[in-house]
Amino acid sequence: MTDDAYVSSLNSPSELTPVEEHRAKVAALLRRTPVETRPLADCLGLALAEDLVAPIPLPSFDNSAMDGYAVRSADLAAASAEEPVKLPVVEDVPAGRVDVPPLRPGTAHRIMTGAQLTPGADAVLPVERTDGGTDEVALFASVQPGQHVRRAGEDLTAGTTVLTAGTRLGAAQLGVAAAVGAAELPVHRPVRVLVLSTGSELVEPGEPLERGQIYESNGLMLDAAVREAGGDPTLLRFVPDDVDAFHAALAEHIGSADLLLTSGGVSAGAYEVVKDALRGNGVEFSKVAMQPGMPQGCGRYRDAFAVVTLPGNPVSSMVSFEVFVRPAMLAAAGHRETGRKVRQAALAESLSAPAGKRQFRRGVFDPATGEVSLQGAPGSHLLGSLARANCLLSIPEDVTELAAKSTVDVMLLD
Ligand SMILES: Nc1nc2c(c(=O)[nH]1)N[C@H]1C(S)=C(S)[C@@H](COP(=O)(O)OP(=O)(O)OC[C@H]3O[C@@H](n4cnc5c(N)ncnc54)[C@H](O)[C@@H]3O)O[C@H]1N2
Ligand code: MOO
């Protein structure tokens, strides 16, 4: 029997809280963060709090799609490589020039990409189809009316809703907001998260490692996971395994944090400072029907902030963050999409899973083949295999065996 199967055998399924129940409890703890107006550059990854309506059309005027010559298409009807049409070039129109006189029949304007289309012109012939002349130009092809012209409003008309409330502001969304002239946007402020890890065996990376010690990794990992989820973390590392010191560390952050995220010290051991300090202060501990991630706790600390206690095993911590904390944080920060993308994949090899628990195995999903292969064993200490994975396989509670080629849900991590 593997260690994980053995741990599973210690708890009867009836003692375990269903995953969805714990997920709902965690989600209910976090309050919606307030709306604030931020300059565009400070909005990356945040959720838009109100619909953004375009005050101007995009493009905002008819303009050239190519560097070339603004013409009347009728003047070029007979043009070909063998018998070019020659026209005088009477204006040069760089992008931004607005004092251009109308195009007279039988003439051309040299025009650049993005320049306002000369009034009277109905098409642009790209410079490659010409001799590039500046006083007179030989035009080697005909053009259709409207060819190489970008029409005002063809992307967005004024008054269109460009982005709806709840949209995550990524690069493209910030780009379009800038393009319609928004300098700042109403967004939900990021969830402020205190990330705390305990454990007297933990040593800061870079320091020499004594016998029995390990490098602290959960704090940094969860701090990064909070950032990736659009949150604003404060990392409290090496809080001593002492209840008074633990409360003292928290006291400084009352009023400035939305969520305390701890890792470690919540299972059945004799030195479980997180449990000792938080039990009786609004936090309840339970065992959730999942592997990894069975020992969990959540509540509100002295009604000051939400608390989620994650198990200390590194993979348990990360998987629990994905399953419980990330969706709750995204919802609190006003995001419409709170879940990872889930795909159905064909399992590359057979697997077995504990009865009565949702198991999350680490995997590599290949979108080209639709196949997922396992990364490492189920053990919740196997951080190397998590780091090589791009997805979590979600194996339902009632499934104990899956044959190769079976269909399985995978949660994509990137
Ligand atoms: N008798 C039982 N023992 C255990 C049970 C159980 O039900 N009965 N559950 C096991 C399961 S499942 C898990 S998960 C762990 C959870 O333990 P804790 O949350 O109390 O975590 P710790 O004991 O503090 O640490 C577990 C493991 O993780 C390492 N760790 C902790 N914090 C960090 C950190 N910040 N960076 C890197 N590594 C960390 C720690 O050294 C331990 O190896 O309990 C099982 N035991
Ligand atoms: O399996 Mo624990 O439940 O390692 O998180």
UniProtKB/TrEMBL annotation:
Catalytically driven reaction(s): adenylyl-molybdopterin + molybdate = Mo-molybdopterin + AMP + H(+)
Keywords of the record: Magnesium, Metal-binding, Molybdenum, Molybdenum cofactor biosynthesis, Transferase
EC category name: transferase
Pathway where this protein functions: Cofactor biosynthesis; molybdopterin biosynthesis
SMART domains attached to this UniProt entry: MoCF_biosynth
Superkingdom field: Bacteria
Pfam family, one: MoCF_biosynth
EC number: 2.10.1.1
Co-factor requirement: Mg(2+)
InterPro entries, alphabetized: MoaB/Mog-like_dom_sf, MoaB/Mog_dom, MoeA-like, MoeA_C_domain_IV, MoeA_C_domain_IV_sf, MoeA_linker/N, MoeA_linker/N_sf
Biological role: Catalyzes the insertion of molybdate into adenylated molybdopterin with the concomitant release of AMP.
Family note: Belongs to the MoeA family.
Protein name: Molybdopterin molybdenumtransferase
Organism expressing this protein natively: Saccharopolyspora griseoalba
